Backbone:
């Protein structure tokens, strides 16, 4: 007996990868390039998704250049977009031994403290986030946004 054929809609994953210097200037450039690429993928400047990704990339890139910096080594931004499904943001650095704490059990920063809120922002905005090993060296912090039906993050005109 043969099984009936089902038609599956092909999914084309679009990818953007760019290295940037491990400096505050590099982090700003990563954010700007991410927004430019999103605009090319039909997420207009100023849309909910564009604004959310701007904050996510800004936080992840700032953390990479602040806590993951190795002199002479670059950081990397990678955006993966599966239309109608998922937008994935990866920011990688070469300091694998300096990993951010993960999970809801992390201490809440002091109200008058100067830092410690970046990953709280990432956790609030992203559908999910994780810290991954980067081969051959370093780590990647990944944030994902669900784009499926009923999600607020959708491309324009879709």
Residues:
């Amino acid at each position: 007996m043969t099984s009936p054929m089902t038609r599956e809609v092909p999914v084309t994953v679009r990818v953007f990868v760019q290295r940037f210097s491990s400096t505050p200037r590099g982090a700003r450039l990563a954010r700007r390039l991410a927004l430019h690429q999103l605009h090319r993928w039909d997420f207009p400047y100023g849309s909910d998704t564009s604004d959310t990704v701007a904050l996510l990339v800004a936080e992840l890139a700032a953390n990479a250049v602040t806590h993951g910096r190795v002199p002479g080594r670059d950081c990397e931004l990678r955006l993966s977009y599966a239309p109608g499904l998922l937008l994935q943001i990866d920011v990688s650095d070469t300091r694998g031994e300096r990993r951010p704490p993960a999970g809801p059990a992390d201490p809440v920063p002091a109200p008058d403290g100067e830092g410690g809120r970046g990953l709280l922002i990432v956790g609030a905005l992203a559908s999910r986030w994780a810290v991954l090993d980067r081969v051959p060296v370093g780590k990647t912090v990944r944030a994902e946004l669900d784009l499926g039906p009923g999600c607020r993050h959708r491309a324009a005109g879709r």
